[in-house]
Model the fold of this input.
Amino acid sequence: MKRNIGVLGLGKSGIAAANLAVKLGYNVFASDNNSKEVKIKNLSKKVTKELGSHSDKILGSNIIIKSPGVNLNIPVLKKARKKNIKIISELAFSLKNSKYRKIIAITGTNGKTTTTDLISKIVKAVHKDSIVSGNIGYPLSNKALKTTKNTFITIELSSYQLEDTPYFKPNISTLLNISQDHLEHHETINAYIKAKENILINQNFKDFAIINYDDKICRKISKKTKAKVIFFSKSYIKNGIFYNSGSIVIAVENKNIVIRPKINVIGMHNIENILAATAVSYALGINPLIIEKVISKYKGAKHRIEFVRTLNGANYYNDSKSTNVDSTRVALESFNKDILLIMGGRDKGSAYASIKELVKQKVKSIFLIGEASNKIKNDLNGCTAFIYCDNMENAVKQIFKTAVSGDTILLSPACASFDQFKNFEERGEVFKKSVWSF
Done:
């Protein structure tokens, strides 16, 4: 007799989970509260679906797979818990149906995509049976049935995914940094931190936890894992991996290994990302010369301070992955001055005033798009000029008229993309297409 699986939310991970459940022989019912006009792409025709609301039909499931971002306290899930229906995440479902040799998991408020991308490239240089998944690339459910006992899975995880997967246990966890984010979902910073802790809380002495020594919150969290902790830092530490005048020093287990890669990505935040990737690779036993070689070839992740082009002497950068205020701070710190900044999108509950002094020092004008425009202007009022542009195409047009040689044009929204775009990738692509239209 077939068992019934319900899927709540038909974003990328929900569709992937539904399709995997079909392949495994389940009866699958999927529910998404977006309007009935929304087109769901690549969903198996064997999935029964409802669009526009979450009805009680999903309560006929033996298991409900909840997509990241769907609030656990919506009415239909409260009813499901009362009926003792098991509620799991796409991550838990895909891992249960995957084979693997090692799981390498990366989280943090900022830097996840770049670090995951770089780690995956270093791992791939040694282990051909290697995939990268999670928030980067594709949901693991898409590849679960193609994995083998030799597969290395490198996976980028958000607080949403970790919140829904309390029993997660990777072989190597990586905690990059913690700052205020996603308060529209988690409500408090403590709840956000608690979700992040799930990346390492279940690890044991056979596992590794790679942790940013320079981040006080991360350092505090490191005491909650039984894994072997390897710290990384932008400056000297006695036992760990650190940066020293262009070199990376691996000072772990009485070793003193120095590599000198060519670093092609800008900003000290990217030094942190490279240090984290080095620490993970060391924990995997990868030859330091291979680590050095891959880092030297690495040009950065798409949508993360990604150089687009030079136009009339002005340089254009796509930082669409900047979906919180701290990420925009990091981007601004990567440049000197004369910045024309595009900000806006769906607000996530954080205060923009925390970057007020930085904006005052470096930003000539802010070009506002999306729902958060008024809040951004109110929070940053008095430190620069503001131009309301409504949408991305208009913002780029206005900047083209304004920019002079030597300016830096930076899309770093500090907001989610969902008011005008499907995701940050689409937002970044629209920006690049607009820049290349001139």
About this structure: The chain has three domains: 4-88, 98-297, 306-435. The domain at 4-88 is CATH 3.40.50.720 (Rossmann fold).
